[in-house]
Design brief:
By secondary structure, the protein is α+β, with helices and mostly antiparallel strands. It is 40% helix and 26% strand.
């Protein structure tokens, strides 16, 4: 199984979109709990706010590409906005 995911850095108002075959490990890597140096290291901490599973890597990569488009970014920002508005005091 493969995952396409989006994480959010509230501190820097950044979204990162990627794909992986091990979602839990990947989120740990982005947050620096395992020592890897990625672009995301500069914008910690990250929170997972969107994920979807696929049978094949090519399907996950296609979804990643879609989410990195203008329409995909707008959709992700909309998901974040809904989460803030539905939160207590939001």
């Amino acid at each position: 199984m493969f995952w396409t995911y989006a994480i959010f850095s509230e501190k820097f108002n950044k979204i990162y979109v990627g794909h992986t075959n091990d979602l839990q490990r990947r989120i740990i890597e982005h947050n620096g709990l395992i020592e890897f140096k990625y672009w995301t290291a500069s914008y910690r901490p990250w929170t997972l706010f969107y994920s979807i599973s696929f049978e094949t890597r090519s399907q996950a990569m296609a979804e990643e590409k879609r989410l990195k488009s203008g329409a995909g970014r707008r959709m992700l920002r909309g998901i974040l906005k809904q989460g803030v508005e539905s939160a207590p005091g939001g």
